[in-house]
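Person: Please comment on this record:
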Amino acid sequence: MTTSPDTTGQDTTGAYVTAGQEFTRDTNYITTRITADGRDGYPVEPGRYRLVVSRACPWANRASIVRRLLGLEDALSLGVCGPTHDRRSWTFDLDPGGVDPVLGIPRLQDAYLARFPGYERGITVPAIVDVATGQVVTNDYAQMTLDLSTQWRAHHREGAPDLYPEALRPEIDEIVTVLFRDVNNGVYRCGFAGNQTSYERAFARLFRRLDELSERLARQRYLVGDTITEADVRFFTTLARFDAVYHGHFKCNRSKLTEMPVLWAYARDLFQTPGFGDTIDFDHIKRHYYVVQTDLNPTRIVPVGPDPSGWLTPHGREALGGRPFGDGTPPGPPRQAEVVPVEHSAAGWPAA
């Protein structure tokens, strides 16, 4: 999720829609990779890097889920930004003094500028930062999670699942491509559309794809194969935000997730799987979208609902078979410092 560079320090949030134009996402990311062989100059080394996320952001949520599932907590530390930001950067306002305790910076922008002085693109999460130099290494969220699965294997926990099994990679790659185009980014193409035609086109593509995915998931428990894969992680983070944000705020209102029985059961199945729902902070999610995107919500009023407790109800997906972690095991509980506050979780209703 992106903030735009701004050198004035003024709060210029809200410039997300360009009147008369279709929304087009800037996908020009820092493509440096952290690999086992260090081919780009950044070898995998436990303790060397810090993953910076916001719990509000679906793209960052992917990285935090994969890190949890693979048990990389000891190898890759986690920095969590607050749910809101100004146009300059995500900030570490959840930490004492508003400074990340490991990187020693108040703004994620500082890590970008440390490597690229005058950096002019968006300051995005997730980002991985080299702790010793304070420089951002990569913000390429799509490649980042694949590398956590394939390049960091030596540091996976015992029993970690294979989220990107080699035999299934072509099918996973195919489905995540359409997921991004029509669903993950499709909700943004609805919400940030600058004219009626582009909105309706994005709306139709979104729900056509959701209907197709519902048909697929009516026959099988997971998107690809009989275990959780990268594809499920990518789909889940959009579904987790659907009723809280995308249905109303982004006008994706043909149906709520809770009105799409197969997808609602699938999403609950994943939510109740260790490593998924325990990363979801409904308060941060709503505060980010409704406070930051002021051209969509100029009053910055954050809705109290919807009631998230339904995420904890039985889903019945076990009847389809499948083994969530394959031959592996679930991750343990999240570390105390990384636990989502109960009042922000599905168990914390009512919030007010």
